[in-house]
Q: What sequence folds into this?
């Protein structure tokens, strides 16, 4: 009985965070996902879509590793990225359209899936020969830093930011697909007369960008929380 009471109290206290998505594709994507959710077969469930997203991202990592031996495996990666978008983006929308929300379960599972999927993807990239392992690990660390900040901000500010500025997960997937298509032609790029791996250049830029975002957003949210809680703690005059 005490366990049931505790669960009921937790559910009563839990409040879903306000979702914010200001990315370039946010409005188009939202309409497309709503349409797909409304027309999805009844046998399709949110959990199945979540598993599809995870499986597709892990398969993308395998595809990158295989591209070391045959660059045509990058085409497999593109298909997997598209399937990852479908599963990762549609699962929550489907639950909301069908009024089957499980906010605590969904938030926890969805983001643990993102973390495991990111590890698989970065390891695949590191094994691909398209970029060096330190760059792959730098991207993974920067992603985890930005993710941790997002999760903590969701808890402390009740505001879940799905995008940073005009960039969100969908924009990152689009850039990844464009990089794959470019690498199919040639895995190298020339910058100021220096021949570099294309994914090294893009990965370094992405890692630095994510790290800078994490620092800037941390500073902004720290200042916001400081102002809010300083005002609350000031004695009444």
A:
């Amino acid at each position: 009985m005490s366990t049931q009471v505790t669960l009921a109290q937790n559910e009563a206290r839990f409040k879903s965070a306000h979702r914010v998505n200001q990315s370039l594709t946010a409005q188009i994507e939202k309409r497309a996902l709503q349409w797909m959710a409304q027309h999805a077969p009844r046998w399709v469930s949110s959990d199945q879509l979540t598993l599809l997203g995870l499986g597709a991202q892990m398969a993308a990592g395998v595809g990158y590793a295989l591209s070391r031996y045959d660059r045509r495996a990058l085409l497999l990666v593109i298909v997997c990225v598209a399937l990852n978008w479908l599963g990762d983006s549609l699962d929550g929308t489907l639950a909301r359209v069908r009024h089957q929300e499980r906010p605590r379960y969904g938030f926890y599972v969805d983001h643990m899936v993102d973390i495991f999927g990111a590890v698989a993807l970065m390891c695949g990239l590191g094994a691909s020969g398209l970029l060096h392992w330190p760059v792959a690990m730098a991207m993974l660390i920067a992603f985890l830093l930005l993710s941790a900040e997002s999760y903590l901000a969701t808890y402390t500010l009740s505001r879940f930011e799905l995008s940073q500025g005009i960039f969100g997960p969908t924009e990152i997937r689009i850039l990844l697909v464009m990089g794959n298509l470019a690498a199919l032609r040639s895995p190298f790029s020339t910058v100021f007369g220096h021949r570099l791996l294309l994914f090294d250049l893009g990965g370094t830029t992405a890692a630095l960008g994510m790290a800078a975002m994490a620092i800037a957003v941390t500073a902004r949210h720290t200042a916001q929380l400081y102002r809010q809680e300083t005002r609350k703690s000031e004695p009444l005059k």
Notes: The chain has one domain: 23-160+167-185+197-233. The beta strands are 18-20, 159-161, 188-191, 194-197. The longest strand covers residues 188-191.
